[in-house]
Design goal:
- With about 150 residues, this protein is an alpha/beta fold.
- Helices cover about 45% and strands about 15% of the residues.
- The chain is built from six helices and four strands.
- It has helices at about 5-20, 45-55, 55-75, 90-100, 120-125, 140-145, and strands at about 40, 75-80, 105-110, 130-135.
- The protein has a four-stranded parallel sheet, with helices on both faces.
- Helix 4 links the parallel strand 2 (about 75-80) and strand 3.
- The protein starts with 6 loop residues before the first helix and ends with a helix.
- About 35% of the residues are buried.
- The mean pLDDT is about 95.
Length: about 150
């Protein structure tokens, strides 16, 4: 999770439903990337989530930057997941999203978060597949299709 929103917990639930072999770590650091072929990064900042985790915005951004550098070195496939919808957009969320999109192999996006076409424009320009979901339950099908 980049931003410590509930999006990561929702993805954890999805992974359980589809029977994925995975490790859930909402505060993974750069050293956690080693050995993984695919990394799902939930982007969407929550000041409440950051506060509960005892993490400042600067600390979260720094962790995210180091994590992305480790992903680049590892060659892991990145799934950028923004499933919290439009309420998870904002300055910090967009900063974290901008770190992830350039390394994303695929995007899973709740369609109302694309109100400014940021995600679809990026996907089109960079030939990155995007799976738009309209309700959280749709993320199950999206991840099943991506991870099969």
């Amino acid at each position: 999770s980049f931003g410590q929103s509930t999006d990561a917990a929702m993805i954890d639930t999805v992974m359980k439903k589809i029977g994925a072999n995975y490790t859930y770590n909402a505060t993974a650091n750069a050293s956690a990337v080693s050995g993984y072929k695919t990394v799902v990064i939930a982007v969407g900042a929550s000041t409440k989530g950051l506060g509960a985790a005892g993490i400042s915005e600067a600390q979260e951004t720094s962790r995210a930057e180091a994590f992305i550098e480790a992903v680049k070195k590892s060659g892991a496939k990145v799934i950028c997941a923004h499933i919290g919808g439009s309420q998870r957009r904002g300055k910090l969320s967009d900063t974290l999203t901008d770190l992830v999109l350039p390394v994303a192999s695929v995007i899973v996006l709740k369609e109302d978060a694309n109100f400014d076409y940021n995600f679809t424009n990026f996907a089109e320009k960079n030939n990155v597949p995007i799976s738009l979901i309209y309700a959280n339950k749709d993320s199950v099908t999206a991840f099943e299709n991506i991870l099969k």
